[in-house]
Amino acid sequence: MTTSTEKAVLTDKDTLKEVIDCLSKHISIKTQGAFNQTDLFNILIGAASNSDTIENTAKKLKKSGSGKNIRYHLAKIKSFPELETQLNLALISRLTRRLKKRKLKLAIDLNLIPYYGKPSKQEQDYIYRSQPKNGTSSFYAYATLYVIAKNKRVTIALVGVKKIYTSVAIISYLLTKVNSLNLKIKRLYLDRGFYSGSVIRWLKALNIPFIMPAIRNGKTGGIQQYLQGSKSYKTTHTMNQGKDNEVTFDLWVVCKYQKGKRGKYGIEYLAYVVYQVKITLDYIYQDYRKRFGIESSYRLKNICRIRTTTKNPIMRLLFVGISFLLVNIWIYLLWSKISKPRRGGRLVYNHLFPLKQMLGFLSNGVNRIYEVREIVYIPDG
User: Fold this and answer.
1) Sign of CA pseudo-dihedral 179, 180, 182, 187
2) Is the pTM of this model over 0.70?
3) What is the pLDDT of residues 243-255, one digit of tens each?
4) What are phi and psi for residue 268, nearest 5 degrees?
């Protein structure tokens, strides 16, 4: 007789309940008749877990409302700012306690979703212009504030970017969203798109330690003049972007030998704007690379984003917010359920519960409630 040492800690039913409870507590959508808010959230999660459309999800389920009925209820969400606030409360509701007790490394980035066609009056305020990608220079843009920590890489703030938002406004909005957490910032990593005198001056005024790449413009002068020699070094640079827009900052220049990587040889120069950061010059390249975890979060988010052709900014925000929330809940379940405390740090069994496993659990739970169609009928005659 053998004794099993395995212990069941999480089921697909538990997983779906965790997600629905979180949505129900923080997001309010008015429904009527037999189709209630829980039904609506279940169908949304069913679509997200398969990265599918609402219409396809509704069609494959016997007891689901129609896609038209679901869109009718979703159209009742009228306030973009209110929905944004609700999504942000949901995002921070599943943070582990330890995150709130330590200084955090945070990253800010922009997630761009291509927009095609001519925007309507409702849409044009939310169209963000950037460098061409996928055949367009118009995008729906979402700025995120992201925690960089082992086994706890979560999004703690989300802002739908409007056309009128400046880079300083985006950063301010994100930091405001998490003021209630009283988080202590150890280091803030920013994308090169935020490189500007106004952003640098603003972050220095807030006394927030940060790192961001410095952009090289032109063949001479500016940052380009520092990209020489064979040794890494530190210096200062004064940026002047017009009247009353001058700022002086520490510039760290890193010389990296490429050694044939990607077919390139010689020295690659990397320049960073650095403020109040306690690391060595030799380590800054490796340290900044940790920021790329935020791009991993975008890839994970895309696995569980509801597909849609709608151009409605509010619906787009809801679908993007749900995808980030699912990733956060996955991290929370890993930490709280699929792990064990031990000396030297909690042991998290990532391999036992990858994100796709959680999405499979959610899909199973929804299918069990609403039953998958097994027969197709065509009209008689």
Assistant:
1) negative
2) yes
3) 667 899 999 999 9
4) -105, 125
